[in-house]
Specification:
Mean pLDDT: 94
Helix content: over 70%
Structural class: mainly alpha
Low-confidence stretches: none
Distance between the termini: 48 Å
Number of helices: 9
Strand content: under 5%
Radius of gyration: 17 Å
């Protein structure tokens, strides 16, 4: 992991910043802070696993480029993938690792079934990305993202209370569920309490 970080972290961070500058509008809930947290979660979940850390760091840093384009409001993995592929070629990323990286990015949205994520790297990116909707930061991201989409507070609460249990249940790895459990409960309790107070 350290070897991959030492080799790619600065490069990928710089490339992501360039891509975000080119994008029409940066979505604050999916900014560099989100990417850094996803990378932290990847390292936490996969610390004792035999995985390709180069694929993981590249997929993590490039997975949300499409979110900053109008067509990426919902399913943005397929929009992010072509941008990511251009970046990987530009930085001379190992050719034999590009396909796994791109597929991990392409199918990280929750709308895709698990069969689309056959590699451990794709499962890890999917899970780590979903962890960022739990806890205090997850609550903030839910509120910000839905406000930017023009949703009312009641619509946001209804969506969160439907969506959070699904996200937790659909986590691919047991390690992730263990890590997520208390933060998931925090977010669910918060939205339930807010819903009760509004009602």
């Amino acid at each position: 992991m350290e070897q991959a970080e030492n080799k790619w972290l600065v490069i990928l961070k710089d490339e992501l910043k360039k891509e975000m500058k080119k994008a029409p509008s940066v979505v604050s809930s999916h900014d560099l802070g989100h990417i850094k947290r996803v990378w932290k979660y990847v390292k936490q979940i996969a610390k004792d696993m035999d995985v390709d850390w180069e694929v993981l760091i590249a997929a993590t840093f490039l997975h949300d480029i499409g979110r900053h384009y109008p067509e990426g409001v919902r399913e943005h993995g397929p929009i992010s993938a072509p941008f990511a592929e251009k970046v990987l070629k530009r930085i001379c990323f190992p050719e034999d690792k590009i396909e796994n990286t791109i597929n991990s990015i392409k199918y990280h949205d929750e709308s895709f079934p698990p069969e689309k994520r056959p590699t451990m790297e794709s499962k890890l990116l999917y899970d780590a990305d979903k962890l960022d909707v739990f806890g205090a930061i997850g609550v903030s991201r839910f509120l910000i993202f839905n406000a930017l989409r023009g949703k009312t507070l009641n619509e946001t609460l209804d969506y969160a209370l439907d969506n959070l249990p699904l996200r937790f249940e659909r986590l691919e790895l047991e390690q992730t569920k263990k890590i997520a459990e208390s933060e998931y409960k925090y977010a669910l309790d918060y939205f339930n309490k807010l819903k009760q107070e509004i009602d």
